[in-house]
Amino acid sequence: MRYTFRTQPNARIELVALALVGALGWRLGISRVEWAVIGLISAVILALEAVNTALEALVDLASPQYHPLAKHAKDAAAGALLLAVLGSMWVALFVLGPRLWERLF
Fold first, then answer.
1. Per-run averaged pLDDT (10 residues), the chain, 105 residues
2. Which of 36, 49, 50, 72 is deepest in the core (most CB within 10 A)?
3. Catalytic residue check, 14
């Protein structure tokens, strides 16, 4: 994980976003089950970021020159991570949204 956070700007952005969601969850007093859901999706995002980083390094090692299949492998891994991030945004909206709505309106 250290390598991932040191070399991948998006991993650091994800950590900041997770910290903000955590702080907001604490402030809004979410339930234990909601914490479990937020924690699980957070772990999935960070794990997929690490898998994406590993796959990119492995592809670069195996195929230093451009190859369409290498590009497809990298794109597929990045796409999986993107889908998980979009899903995590849905989870955050579903868990935090109603409480935010109550406080703001």
1. 94 96 96 97 97 97 94 97 96 95 92
2. 49
3. no
